[in-house]
């Protein structure tokens, strides 16, 4: 998203220093008991399937925070913030604690009675400092229709 090298370097530094706030909306299978929690488990390449990522002792630090927005009979809507940006971090962490994303065929059993194509994961917003002016920026994206329908019940 950077238009020149200076902006790219500045944005890369913010990401590296965990100064960029990334907020996601996730819809997971199961009813999450906690109202909010932090998952701090290292993520690395899976030793069983090299195409997948996994929680592993040899992995890099990965921290995911979530809070419940809405509970249904058999699924939960979460707001998720990540401190680190590991490959598939949200998918791996939520699956690891027993709440896989609806529609995620890679990190769950694939049960999808809701008929979702793809994962029920949406990048809601990105907050960072403008690389030139230093002004706080917040970019937001509207939920896709299929997720709106799930969340509205």
Overall description:
The protein is α+β, with helices and mostly antiparallel strands and 153 residues long. The chain has one domain (5-152): Pseudouridine synthase, CATH 3.30.2350. Helices cover 18% and strands 33% of the residues. It has three helices and eight strands, in the order αββββββαββα. It has helices spanning 5-16, 89-96, 145-152, and strands spanning 21-29, 36-40, 43-45, 53-55, 63-71, 75-82, 121-129, 136-140. The strands form two sheets. Strands 2-5-6-1-7-8 form a six-stranded antiparallel β-sheet, sandwiched between helices.
Write the layout of secondary structure elements.
Layout lengths: L4 H12 L4 E9 L6 E5 L2 E3 L7 E3 L7 E9 L3 E8 L6 H8 L24 E9 L6 E5 L4 H8 L1
Antiparallel strand pairs: 1-6, 1-7, 2-5, 3-4, 5-6, 7-8
Give the key terms.
single chain; about 150 residues; alpha+beta; Pseudouridine synthase; six-stranded antiparallel β-sheet; two-stranded antiparallel sheet; 8 strands; about 35% strand
Distance, first to last CA: 35 Å
Number of domains: 1
The CATH class is identified as Alpha Beta
Per the CATH scheme, the topology name is Pseudouridine synthase
The CATH architecture assignment turns out to be 2-Layer Sandwich
Residue ranges: pLDDT <50 for 5 or more in a row? Answer: none
Query: Largest sheet, described in full?
Result: 6 strands, antiparallel
CATH homologous superfamily classification: Pseudouridine synthase
Radius of gyration: 16 Å
How much of the sequence is in beta strands? 25-35%
What structural category arises from helix and sheet content? Answer: alpha+beta
Helix percent band: 10-25%
């Amino acid at each position: 998203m950077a238009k020149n090298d200076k902006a790219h370097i500045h944005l890369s530094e913010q990401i590296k220093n965990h100064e960029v706030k990334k907020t996601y909306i996730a819809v997971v299978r199961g009813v999450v008991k906690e109202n909010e929690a932090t998952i701090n488990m290292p993520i690395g390449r899976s030793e069983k399937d090299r195409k997948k990522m996994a929680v592993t002792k040899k992995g890099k630090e990965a921290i995911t925070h979530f809070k419940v927005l809405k509970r249904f009979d058999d699924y939960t809507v979460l707001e998720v913030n990540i401190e680190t940006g590991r490959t598939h971090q949200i998918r791996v962490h939520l699956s690891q604690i027993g709440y896989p994303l609806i529609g995620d065929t890679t990190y769950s059993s694939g049960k999808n009675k809701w008929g979702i194509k793809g994962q029920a994961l949406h990048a809601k917003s990105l907050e960072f400092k403008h690389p030139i002016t230093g002004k706080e920026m917040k970019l937001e994206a509207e939920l896709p229709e299929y997720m709106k329908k799930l969340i509205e019940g």
